[in-house]
Amino acid sequence: MIRRVGPWMIALALACLTPGTLAAQPAAPAASAVRACPAPDRYLTPKVPLRRAAEAVRKGKRLRVLVFAAVRMPAITETVEAKRYPASLAAALSQRLPGVDVTVTTRMEPRAGAGESLPLLNAALSAPVAPSGYDLVIWQLGSTDVLKGTDMSAFGTKLSSGVQAIHARQADAIVITMQYSPRTDFMFDAGPYLQALRWTVKSEGAALFNRYDIMRYWAEEGTFDLSDLQPGASMFEDVHRCVGDLLARFITNGMAAPETQ
Q: In the record, which residues are listed under signal peptide (predicted)?
């Protein structure tokens, strides 16, 4: 059952669920060591091989990635953009793939649910960073649909269409689940949307990077205090760095699957 909530609760959830809010907080003192990014192995290997990405690296020594995501704020400054997970992903992939020309293009759309995202995704796929197109497309969605209470049937249909559009461009597809926040988990039932993401992604032969469960694991293990009412910029950076690092592991594991060799 989808829980219906008032506008004030949606505003609160937007502040809690989206990392742009964290970036606006005063920076905490620098940590003496880089925080580790633990996650169970089950979250770090896709259930489908990333064949196109593996082929691009093997034959062309290059990897073209598009990260397509919804964000809370109408605009993202360059300073904030440099600290979000796509930047960490680019650095981590370059480190894991020495000698490979890695390009990560980011397209952020404000407050876009699955329905609003679909035509924008198609437009982004039609204007790739290189004539050869993208080898891998990462689609982040779910939070806006949870907050709006998007009809589940429409959500699944749009998700299927988006993954099919990615595959039609001869690119591998990774779908990223929404963020987890213990401060809003009691207000919004993400369960049906997570289930729809899992089922649809599996049906369409895409990979699912389960950011929601990874962040919940961090909260339960005390890796990050995601219940902090005034999280600082350092947490924003650490969380995004960890997401980028783990996503890079997820991608390279998918490229190394026996089916890609």
A: 1-23
Contact 18, 143 (CB under 8 A): yes
d(CA 172, CA 253): 14
DSSP 42: G
Are the C-beta atoms of 107 and 68 separated by less than 8 Å? yes
Q: Residue 31: inside a domain, yes or no?
A: no
Alpha carbons within 13 angstroms on the beta-carbon side of residue 194 total 14
Q: Is 63 in contact with 101 (CB distance < 8 Å)?
A: yes
User: How many angstroms from the chain centroid is the CA of residue 196?
Assistant: 16
Q: What is the pLDDT of residues 217-248, one digit of tens each?
A: 999 998 888 776 555 667 778 888 999 999 99
How many C-beta atoms surround the C-beta of residue 107 within 10 A? 17
Query: Per the structure, how many domains does the chain have?
Result: 1
Kindly report the CATH number assigned to the domain that includes residue 157. 3.40.50.1110
